[in-house]
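Dear support,

I submitted the protein below through the web form. The confirmation email said the job was done, but the results page showed an empty box. After a refresh the structure appeared. I'm attaching both so you can tell me whether what I see now is the final result or a partial one.
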Amino acid sequence: MDKEKILERCNQICKNTLMETLDITFVDVGDDFLTAQMPVNSRVHQPDGVLHGGASVALAESVGSAASYLFLDTDSYAIRGLEISANHTRSKVDGYVLATARFLHKGRTTQLWEIRITDEKDQLISICKLTTIALKK
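What the results page shows now:
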């Protein structure tokens, strides 16, 4: 499948989900990564007007889980998240953020993803780790 078809499929399956609610869209894919974008506005702010850490974590888990489905055998295995952690390094008030998921470890049963969330200037906003498990269907 070519890049545009992969991105179209990823965005299509997000209809009527949290990803649609947060306006998360998949914008780039390569041999070893998947990137999604989310606007930063009042819908994802905490009460003091900056990007909510929970929205960042939702973005990270969304792109890491989608990457699992792209890069693992989902015909034979169901992929589930086991753990996610996040460190937030910078505040963000408006614009958008990009989250890129890459494997740190690609085991047969467990996988470890690094998800870097950056702003338009490629400044690090959050760094997340997601552990997933592949369960035989």
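Response: this is the final, complete result; the empty box was a page-load delay. The first strand starts at residue 25 and ends at 29.
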